[in-house]
Design brief:
The complex is a heterodimer of chains A (about 220) and B (about 220). Chain A has helices at about 5-15, 35-40, 45-65, 75-95, 115-130, 140-150, 165-180, 195-200, 210-220, and strands at about 105-110, 130-135, 155-160, 185-190, 205. Chain A is α/β, with parallel strands linked by helices and about 220 residues long. Chain A folds into 2 domains: about 5-95, Methionine synthase domain (Methyltransferase, Methionine Synthase (B12-binding Domains), Chain A, domain 1), CATH 1.10.1240; about 105-220, 3-Layer(aba) Sandwich (Rossmann fold). The relative contact order of chain A is 0.12. Chain B is an alpha+beta fold. Chain B is built from 8 helices and 10 strands. The longest helix of chain B has about 30 residues, at about 115-145. Classes of the chains: A alpha/beta (about 220), B alpha+beta (about 220). Chains A and B meet through helix 4 and helix 5 of A and helix 3 and helix 6 of B.
Chain lengths: ~220, ~220
């Protein structure tokens, strides 16, 4: 694999955005994901390779570390910022059709719930893993989820809840999706949610960590 | 009897160490990497937090094995909380909030793409609400000590088996918009960085050691009271 791709993956794993970014301290005054992505593309490496072996590899590494409690939320967010910076250079390739996303992922915090840190984290990790993410925000009604599914019939849907009281909203949304669009894959997450609850409400997948969802969808698509 | 207290941000002494501990880091282990973030977030948060705490005291109450009845309202608190409040001669129903400003700031940061600072503000908001509740406990204890009383741990809906859905009933014991906090239909407090609950006080009231150890609630967000 090209040295550039290793460097991009490394910068994303450790949250090095660009040369100006002082984070992480041990990479100060070095190029970051921003510069290496531009250099990789200029050197003729395909956008597909940059995405697969740079961005996705870096995000996979940080996702695994997060799952294993080796890093905490701020480090994942720094990685996501680095990934977003690199991704900006790949956007023209998505627009031209040269790059294809792994699919569309619709995400939102369910009705009645206004917590968004977990939802944002999943959103960014999915984006970094090559998914086209449609973030519906917080306090999202079942109707709004249904409209988004109508517009993106092949999308995977992710529902987030932090309150035990809003798990009822989650149940209602899952029931409606499964009744009207049974082929839609529905993922659920959030502190009070469990595998037992996932099975009870008929969702397809629950993972306590974003990486679990990434790996589930990877397996499902292959 | 109703009491409210305003707390300044400085008086709560929220530190970088508090933030890193809340996030999950070992003390001092993240300071090299995130010191600037912590310091900048603390400086800005100081100007936007509007921290208020208050409580209402009730002497019309009954504690059974798994329930607590306050002013005629039955709360299914579960055995752990009932045991902690046993021996109380009164119950304080409390609310503390960090105010709207800190959550608004977090929202603005998220919208601008600065998700790291958004997270820092979110954590500081949570810490302020919790620390205000700690301070309010001290004030309640001072008030109680004058009468030779002690206080129990504070117990909140959503913890130790007490259904968060009972939050509405709890708020009905307080004046409308007490401390500026209101409830949504899903029992979500607004401002979002707020805590509520009950504390027992009395001659035989006291703090239980390590109450989380007694609780087997698998879906607890923080695994703490």
């Amino acid at each position: 694999m090209s040295d550039y791709l290793h460097k991009i993956a490394h910068c994303i794993e450790f949250g090095k955005i660009n040369r100006q970014s002082p984070y992480p301290p041990n990479m100060k005054d070095q190029d970051g994901a921003d510069e290496y992505t531009q250099q990789a593309l200029q050197s003729g490496i395909s956008a597909q390779h940059v995405l697969l072996h740079g961005l996705i590899t870096g995000m996979e590494k940080i996702g695994k570390k997060f799952r294993e409690n080796q890093v905490f939320v701020p480090q994942v967010l720094m990685s996501a910022k680095a990934m977003n910076t690199a991704m900006a250079h790949l956007m023209p390739y998505f627009s031209s059709g040269e790059l294809k996303s792994k699919g569309t992922f619709i995400i939102g915090t369910v009705a009645g719930d206004l917590h968004d840190i977990g939802k944002n984290l999943v959103s960014m990790i999915m984006k970094g893993n090559g998914w086209n993410v449609i973030d519906l925000g917080m306090d999202v009604s079942t109707e709004k989820f249904m409209e988004a599914i109508q517009q993106h019939p092949d999308a995977v849907v992710g529902l987030s809840a932090l309150l035990t009281t809003t798990m009822a909203s989650m149940e209602q949304t899952v029931a409606r999706i499964k009744a009207e669009k049974p082929a839609t894959t529905v993922a659920i997450g959030g502190a009070p949610v469990s595998q037992a609850f996932c099975e009870k409400i008929g969702a397809d997948v629950y993972s306590p960590h974003p990486q679990g969802l990434v790996e589930y969808l990877e397996k499902k698509n292959n | 009897m109703i009491r409210t207290h305003d707390f300044t941000f400085a008086s709560l002494n929220v530190t970088a160490s508090d933030i890193e501990e809340f996030i999950g880091y070992q003390p001092g282990s993240s300071l090299d990497a995130f010191k600037d973030h912590y310091e900048s977030a603390l400086a800005i948060a100081a100007g936007v937090c509007r921290i208020i705490g208050g409580y209402r005291l009730f002497t019309d109450f009954e504690i059974t094995k798994k329930n607590i009845i306050i002013d005629g309202l039955l709360f299914s608190t579960g055995g752990i909380i009932s045991r902690q409040l046993k021996g109380s001669s009164g119950i304080a129903v409390f609310v503390c909030t960090a105010g709207h400003g800190i959550s608004e700031l977090a929202k603005e940061m998220t919208a601008s793409g600065d998700v790291v600072m958004a997270y820092m503000y979110d954590v500081i908001g949570s810490l302020c609400a919790e620390k205000a509740a700690d301070r309010m406990e001290v004030l309640l204890l001072k008030e109680s000590e004058n009468e030779g009383f002690g206080i129990s741990n504070r117990c909140s809906p959503g913890y130790c088996g007490w259904d968060v859905g009972e939050q509405g009933k709890l708020f009905s014991l307080l004046p409308q918009g007490f401390c500026g906090v209101t409830l949504s239909a899903s029992s979500l407090m607004n401002p979002i960085k707020s805590v509520s609950g009950i504390i027992g006080y009395g001659q035989h009231a006291g703090k239980a050691k390590r109450p989380c150890k007694q609780c087997h609630q698998a879906d607890c967000t923080y695994k703490r009271i």
